[in-house]
Input
Amino acid sequence: MFNFKNFKDIDPKSVRQLVMVDTRQRSRVPHVEPVFANPDLVIHTYDHHPDSEDDVAAAKAVVKPWGSTTAIIMDEIMARDVPLTTDEATILGLGIYEDTGSFTFASTTEHDLGAAAWLKSRGMDVGVIADLMVRELSAEQITIMSQLIESAQTHEINGVEVVIAEATSDEYVGDFALLVHKFLEMENLRVLFAIGLMGDRVHLVARSRSPDVDVGKICASLGGGGHPYAASASIKNLTLTQVREELFGLLYSQINPQILVRQIMSKPAVSIDQNASMRQAQEIMTRYGLKALPVVVAQGNRRCVGVIEHDIMDKAIKHGLGKVPVSEYMIREPDVVTPDTDLYPLMEIILGRRQRLAPVVEKDMLVGVVTRTDLVNVLVKEPSRIPESLLPERKKERNIAGVLRERLPKDLLAFLRKAGTLGRDMGYAVYVVGGFVRDVLLKCPNTDMDLVVEGDGIAFAAALAEHCGGRSKAHPKFKTAVVILPDGQRVDVATARLEYYEYPAALPTVELSSIKMDLYRRDFTVNALAVHLSPERFGDLVDFFGAQRDIKERVLRVLHSLSFVEDPTRIVRAIRFSERFGFRIGGQTDRLIKNAVQHNFFHKLSGARVFHELRLILQEKMPLACLRRMQEYKLLAAIHPLLALTPAREAVLLEVENVINWYRLLYIDPTPHVWLVYFLAMCNGLSPEEFDAIARRLNFSKRVAGDIARLRGQIRATAQGLLTGSTTRARSPSCIFCWSRCRWRGRCSSWHGIHGNRYRSMSPSI
Output
């Protein structure tokens, strides 16, 4: 009757008119997304939902707060007296009955009743509607209903009773909203939130008969939408527990919020100008006993531009940066609140995002602050207001034992379990940490394990080596050890420790600490992850710094503002990781990189440390992309001006990259030292004296410098031989590996025509 078609059977470019019914949100119709690209598309909408930011711009928008969208369409049908068949009248009537709960929902209007009456006069069959509305529950639906009934709990939130029920199923079970409505009717509830974990997502269905609870607004905060009395949301990438905790926070925030920021903020706010020095910030914080300061444009312009924290200020002064403006190391674009903000967003900022204070602004001007102490003083009196997701430890952990089983080889998983059991027997908590955990979450193969022990790491390493039939090598100064397993696998073991740097670019001084402080000393949030290995908690993921969020958003962030001051090699690591994983460098981190280069902190690094990081860059799969990023940050010139990426040098590196990629596809020995080939390309065109200057900067030994200098000589001789056609004596297979290993050389009739001409066009230096 309706001639439905699958969108796949329609040419999107042929669509000239799009009619959206029961929604105006573009995100709700992803299956027709290609149609929106049509330049002459005309959109009509018929909807009864509240406005949202995602609403499309329509040439005709008919939006009325009636109980059903069908009644809105019927208004036009009745005005035009459009003739309908009995089947058409029945189908339209079904829409009205469904949307109004057979005229029992509080949203039902006289327009819905009038439309139904008109349809009845045109042959609407209420018997068919009754058959369709009264559906027998399937076995799966009965199971879900039983779970909802058994799990239902009543909570009094700011004077309103709210029932929250939960259910789980491996597969999606249809008509979840119908089950929720039936439950609401059976128990005669006023407000009901039903959370269902089905398949790979969590479904939230909400119903309200109370004017105090706008479920549409609450579901919208979770990515869904609806009406004040009926709404829903479908949520991916969160567990059922996380959704429940987020829901509690929203309920406390939006149901009769009783505490506003203006009631607890400190005013007037003590602040500091963005151009004031770190030393001045220290004086103000010491005078008033503060742990952080809001930063404003100037005392005559109270627009808040950042927050400077005591820890960062203190470290900056110790590194000799007391005269540097606070704007260099402040947290830019901090989360702010207004005087009328309620408690939950404030808790999210201070407890969830760990911002030490929340600036309070009105018309963009700073009018006060709420500190962590201000918030704690309120929550001590009413601890039930804190959502579980914001409790100090609860937010940071979820269990990924299943992920480990799925993504790790069995022998590796068995080793981790063995390490955890041994740690428990010795009275130590043992974690696997860092890049290994990051790569597990990113589904990247990585067998390079780092273990951290809350206890004596060296003693644990010795016991682990003995237990596995291997050996260990201790480094007492750094409280670390290496376990060498029988198959040659190396596992780094460290005592949970805190590192501090006595001066910029120094090697760290180590003190005993906990896993939290151990993770805080690391370079980036995505590397500050740990997994519990103890049998009782195996697989618990520890994330204190929002690494899971950054992995999901594919962004690279440092843990604190002085990270690149303390260890400038982290700049190169940031570039390496961002290019390897396709992450973007966060705005604050990008600014701190430029700041560190500008202050010449890279010059203070030893040549050996610089070369180590450069070599790792050149061992990446696509090092040229990394070198380009280093050039953008003026980092190559900071290492040595002669290494700057000129157009000619970039062309050579691109050719090297193409040749190496081609050579890898041949799967033949010997495997070249790729980093060395790239490094030789970087030094292309340099005189012997210029190369010696770079060798001194990178602290090459005489032997290494001599070996590379001889290779450069062999390359020049080989290139010259290729130009003259006499390559027998000059050829160096260890360097010109692509030419010497060509499987078709000497047998391809066009080899000299293609490759010979190609090399003749190249300069002798290349």
Observations:
- The chain has 31 helices and 27 strands.
- Residues 218 and 250 are 6 Å apart (CA to CA).
- The mean pLDDT is 85.
